[in-house]
Write a sequence for this structure.
């Protein structure tokens, strides 16, 4: 809930401070995502060494402090654009340390045969907040302004810490603590590179991160530029995407047995690109709502299936590090958002997103024909 509300609130605050600049939006998203590329491998090594539950609690507690600082700066009128950059780096670092533990702790709770369903169900829970969070933030900004909503976001982080404290699993690390952290990281990379299935899954993480997700960072600018939407309209767009994401993850969670998963995940990547291309050229609000709904469906289905396969094929003592490698894609996403933001400044956000969709389609085709062994993943 905190993350979903923060995306809308931060985006609206950036537009207010920078005179509606899509490039500024991409820079702040970059500040959040770049640490995920650098720090995520350390988060994975920590998840395989120490209590995953305690790592989650510590990182979320620091997020509370960062959000309270940002809210107070906004309330007092002292907020500046560079504050958003600094807090973005801090939040991104905490997410890098948090997410490998948060994802891999699921495999501590359920048997391997139920892992796909469990991860999809976990994704469904998060997607419920993606439905409520954006709409709630969009409306509350009107009444409480961005500062008031940021204080509520800090409260949501605090509730997350409270409930995480009740989790019993994820207390012990699996790797040998006598080894160095850097050695652990390189062992994880070597392990992933030596397994064709895991290596293919990681490639499929990076391609949508480069071309499939920049639209999320640029959505505030696109909604104002193309649809002339306000904060409430942006919130509804994000809510519709969240509803689609919920349905996509629930569909995967309900499947007892999914065959030819290699073909399925590659097809999902192609459909993602086609939908993004279509969305970029929407000129009416109802059409945009329907297309962004299906974007949510296919992206959530793809990401949940990819994560479940990664954890299924990774050994128990390597699971945190393999998950952390996939988390690095969340850092790659902002790196791609910056050039697409710069392109949007020159030729319009709609055309920039169309280019991203076309590139995603092309790379999906390229992967299908150059990596034939991956089609046999079951």
């Amino acid at each position: 809930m905190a993350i979903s509300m923060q995306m809308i609130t931060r985006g609206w605050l950036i537009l207010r401070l920078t005179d509606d600049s899509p490039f500024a939006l991409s820079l702040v998203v970059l500040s959040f995502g770049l640490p995920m590329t650098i720090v995520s491998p350390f988060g994975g090594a920590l998840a395989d060494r120490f209590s995953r539950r305690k790592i989650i609690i510590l990182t979320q507690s620091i997020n509370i402090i960062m959000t309270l600082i940002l809210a107070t700066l906004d309330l007092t009128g002292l907020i500046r654009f560079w504050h958003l950059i600094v807090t973005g780096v801090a939040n991104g670092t905490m997410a890098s340390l948090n997410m490998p533990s948060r994802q891999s702790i699921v495999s501590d709770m359920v048997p391997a045969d139920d892992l796909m369903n469990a991860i999809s169900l976990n994704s469904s829970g998060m997607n419920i907040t993606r439905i409520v969070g954006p709409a709630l933030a969009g409306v509350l900004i009107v009444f409480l302004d961005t500062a008031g909503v940021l204080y509520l976001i800090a409260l949501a982080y605090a509730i997350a810490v409270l409930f995480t404290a009740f989790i019993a699993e994820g207390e012990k690390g699996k790797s040998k603590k006598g080894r160095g952290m850097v050695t652990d990281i390189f062992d994880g990379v070597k392990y992933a590179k030596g397994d064709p299935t895991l290596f293919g899954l990681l490639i499929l993480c990076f391609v949508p991160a480069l071309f499939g997700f920049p639209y999320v960072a640029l959505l505030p600018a696109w909604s104002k530029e193309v649809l002339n939407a306000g904060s409430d309209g942006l919130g509804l767009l994000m809510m519709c995407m969240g509803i689609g994401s919920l349905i996509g993850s629930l569909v995967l969670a309900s499947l007892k047995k999914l065959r030819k998963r290699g073909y399925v995940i590659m097809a999902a990547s192609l459909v993602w690109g086609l939908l993004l291309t279509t969305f970029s050229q929407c000129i009416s609000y109802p059409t945009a709502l329907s297309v962004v709904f299906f974007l949510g469906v296919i992206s959530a289905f793809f990401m949940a299936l990819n994560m479940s396969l990664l954890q299924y094929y990774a050994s128990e003592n390597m699971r945190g590090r393999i998950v952390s490698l996939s988390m690095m894609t969340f850092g790659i996403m902002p790196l791609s958002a910056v050039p697409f933001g710069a392109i949007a400044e020159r030729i319009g956000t709609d055309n920039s997103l169309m280019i991203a969709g076309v590139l995603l389609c092309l790379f999906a085709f390229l992967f299908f024909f150059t990596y034939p062994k991956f089609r046999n993943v079951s």
